[in-house]
Design goal:
Layout: H1 8-17, H2 22-40, E1 43-46, H3 48-63, E2 74-78, H4 105-112, E3 116-121, H5 155-162, E4 168-172, H6 179-185, E5 188-191, E6 212-216, H7 219-229, E7 259-263, H8 273-288, E8 292-296, H9 304-319, H10 338-349, H11 352-365, H12 371-391, E9 397-401, H13 417-422, H14 428-433, E10 437-444, E11 450-457, H15 462-476
Parallel strand pairs: 2-3, 2-4, 7-8, 7-9
Antiparallel strand pairs: 1-3, 4-6, 5-6, 5-10, 9-11, 10-11
Helix pairs in contact: 2-3, 5-6, 7-15, 9-11, 9-12
Length: 485
């Protein structure tokens, strides 16, 4: 087995025993990037010299008896996390030359624990998309099949792990942007509870929905990364000041007594038969392991798409107002007036999907329409949250598909925004409710495309997700490390 194929836990064990150095592991990942990146296109930027220097420093620290939860582990970041002195584009021309003067809190934590940052990853422009096809600096490809989407918006984060270019990545999830690409690329992805992980230094899309989380090769690595990035941060006013557990303590075999809810609305019309079969098989293995299977209802699921596509664009229109050519990034040249400079900068700097959502959001927030659209959507959001509270009185965890279908060919839904939005119908409600969600690999369809299993639990019960995912992983024994290409 080549070093880049190791899980993070395996690599740490080998480095601690002296069998492997961080430099060897990092060079293995860099060689893999050189081999597959022309096809996968997971990275917007990576810096080999810096990565090797970080790895040498990690090896030196280990030789001096120092330690760290990520000491010497090569990883990569979605390109909306601020990194001091390193370009952070959000996949957009308007931030094509933006170099942050500070690190996001999660980046600080990774560096403190000795992680080796290889580079920044492709994503939909400002995280607005489901395929990463709106990225201005390369479109990632599904490592399992040429010409197929990697998902979005954290498509580069999922593709990089699946292709073996690094051991773990960070992404962000505003409506499914970690879980959906994790499912389509056959890796593990977690969206933590809103408030569990600091959003300080995350370039905001929709502030009441955004959350940072890990994508990894297996459930154990997901738990290890959660131990690193979780915790209260006074610089994020939405960070919740509660104790953070050791998530690795949730990785125990056995689900006897676990109440597994199956939301009937998630198995309706439009669900691919092979996806249904793979999800039902995961429910079966949980039942055989002693879990109690409970039928539950989330009766307002049909409203999730409409509610999300009012709230998210409204918040985006507000957040993206700061990108006007004055303080950040791209500025149109030779404009006749200040107003013309604003217009030209934003017209040329943003892509079509971002402009579409800014227009929708601005309309929803405008005088005379706020009560009819944004306020009404916020009220229905509370009803959706109450659906989940009622469900979690009957069960500990919900099991469902992540997406109605496996990955699809690039360009298939590019000209039909509504069709694209509907691919997120099973993931949006998690963000609207602020609860944690996760995708764990469940198997492959007949074409060899991965299918993920979505798990959801009550606020701050990531431990339940990890325990359930760990047992699904152990039972299915898929044994897949990197995509075969």
């Amino acid at each position: 087995m080549k070093p880049y194929e190791l899980t993070m836990a395996e690599a740490m064990e080998k480095m601690e025993s002296g069998e492997l150095s961080s430099v060897e592991l990092t060079r293995s990942c860099l060689d893999r990037i050189a081999e597959v990146e022309p096809q996968v296109q997971a990275f917007i930027s990576h810096d080999e010299e810096s990565a090797v220097a970080q790895a040498e420093q990690a090896d030196s620290k280990r030789a001096n008896g120092e330690n760290g939860k990520l000491l010497g582990i090569p990883l990569a970041l979605k390109d909306l996390l601020c990194t001091e002195g390193v370009r952070t584009t959000c996949g957009s021309d308007i931030l094509g030359n933006f170099i942050p003067p500070y690190d996001a809190t999660v980046v600080e934590k990774i560096k403190k624990e000795g992680g080796v940052v290889l580079g920044k990853l492709t994503m939909d422009e400002f995280a607005m998309g489901s395929t990463s096809e709106t990225c201005k600096f390369g479109v990632p490809e599904n490592p399992w099949r040429e010409g197929y989407v990697a998902g979005g918006s954290s498509g580069g984060s999922a593709a990089a792990v699946a292709a073996g270019e690094c051991l773990v990545t960070l992404g962000s999830d505003t409506g499914g942007s970690i879980r959906q690409p994790a499912s389509l690329c056959g890796v593990v992805g977690m969206k933590p509870t809103y408030g569990r992980v600091s959003r300080y230094g995350l370039v905001a899309f929709a502030s009441s929905l955004d959350q940072i989380g890990p994508l990894s090769r297996d459930v154990s690595d997901c738990a290890l990364m959660m131990n690193v990035i979780s915790g209260y941060d006074q610089r994020d006013s939405t960070s919740v000041n509660i104790d953070t557990p050791d998530y690795t303590s949730s990785l125990v075999e056995g689900v006897k007594g676990l109440r597994v809810g199956v939301p009937r609305e998630y198995f309706g019309e439009g669900l691919d038969p092979e996806v249904r079969s793979i999800v039902e098989n995961s429910i079966k293995v949980l039942k055989e392991g002693g879990a109690e299977i409970v039928d539950v209802s989330l009766p307002h699921t049909d409203y999730c798409v409409a509610v999300y596509y009012l709230i998210a664009p409204a918040e985006a229109s507000s957040n993206l107002a700061r990108f006007d050519g004055v303080a950040y990034g791209y500025r149109a040249q030779d404009a006749a007036s200040l107003v013309d400079m604003y217009k030209e900068t934003r017209s040329k700097g943003f892509g079509a999907e971002v402009k579409r959502r800014i227009l929708i959001g601005t309309y929803a927030l405008s005088s005379g329409y706020y009560d009819a659209y944004y306020k009404k959507a916020s009220q229905v959001r509370t009803i959706i949250l109450n659906d989940f509270k009622a469900a979690f009185e009957k069960c500990d965890v919900l099991v469902s598909p992540v997406t109605p279908t496996p990955a699809w060919p690039k360009g298939e839904n590019s000209d039909d925004p509504l069709a694209m939005y509907l691919t997120d119908i099973l993931t949006l409600s998690t963000n609207l409710a602020g609860i944690p969600g996760m995708s764990v690999p469940g198997g492959f369809n007949k074409e060899g495309l991965p299918v993920g299993i979505q798990l959801q639990s009550a606020h701050f019960r990531e431990d339940v997700l990890l325990k359930t995912a760990f047992n699904i992983e152990k039972s299915l024994q898929l044994g897949v490390r990197v995509a075969h290409r």
